[in-house]
Amino acid sequence: MAKGRRSHQPMNVLLVRLRLIGDVVFTTPLIRALRRHLPDARLTYLVEPSAAPVVQGNPHLDDLVVAPKRRGLARLQDDLTIARQLRRANFDVAIDLHGGPRGAWFTWASGAPMRIGYAIAGRRWMYTHAVPRAADLAPRHSVLNQFDLLAPLGIDRCEPARDPVEMSDDTAAGDRVRQRLDAAGIGPGHQLAVIHVSAGNAFRRWPAESFAALAAALVSRDANRRVILLSGPSDRAAAEAVAQAARDRLGSTGPAIVSAEFDLAETRALTARAAVYIGGDSGPLHIAATTNTPIVQLLGPTLPERSMPWRSPMYFAEAVDVGPLPCRPCHQRRCEPGDFRCLTGIAPERVVAAAERAMQR
User: Fold this and answer.
1) Tens digit of pLDDT for each residue in 118-129?
2) The pTM is what?
3) 3-state secondary structure of 12
């Protein structure tokens, strides 16, 4: 219990996790565990706009604070405004779930008498409780790494069956997805494969020709199948090129393979409708893990022990990777061999086989 808090008051807890979508998804088991152990606490989550939909409507949270991601003086003004808001909230506990400079500063600026974060050089002074951080490339799941931050509160056990990743249903997003599927000629009777072809960096990008071969193979095996190739805004043209290459392989211009862009809530609704989700280690894959849909994960330099879908083992999830390499895992800053062999070495036939196993489930 935080020092100076009257025992009859519910604990007031701030969670800070900025930046990446997948990492915010990985914090949701921690939110659930906090609610279970502190049923009367008030839980507030501070997040940036891009990942806010992940925790919007989370049933275990009481409040959401969205920190704008502007630059220069505008960001300074935003951060000072939010810091004053946090200070007025009188938090008992603030937990920095990342350790980046901005998140650490928000945690310190909250004024909470108990501030928990990783023991990172140059920032540990901002916390009252500094927790050792697992090595970046350690074969340990990111969810467990973040769960370490609950140890000062006496919470130290996390299992995917009890505390899976989660994201709330969005009825409006589901309606939009159904309308778009109808417009594309994809009905409830079709077996839908969702393939995410975008990647945040070259270390997570499977070759375009491999994606095209995968999509074409899935459709060629069953005329009732439909494939949607997902992409982010910056990869829209690349995704359409993959779709066209797959259609060329099939010798068809029909609607069996299409490319599309969906927002995060729509991506979840679309995945929930699918027979399989296939993609690399990215935010959309971990959003897919909040559904029951079978998942095939393509892993390049990342180890499955670190980033496999965190959910009940009763739901199908299979990682496809190249196997042991002297350079794997890596920090994803420079490809030592120079040819991204951890990705190019994954044959489309192996992914097709995994997808078939998934769809049989």
Assistant:
1) 999 999 999 999
2) 0.94
3) strand
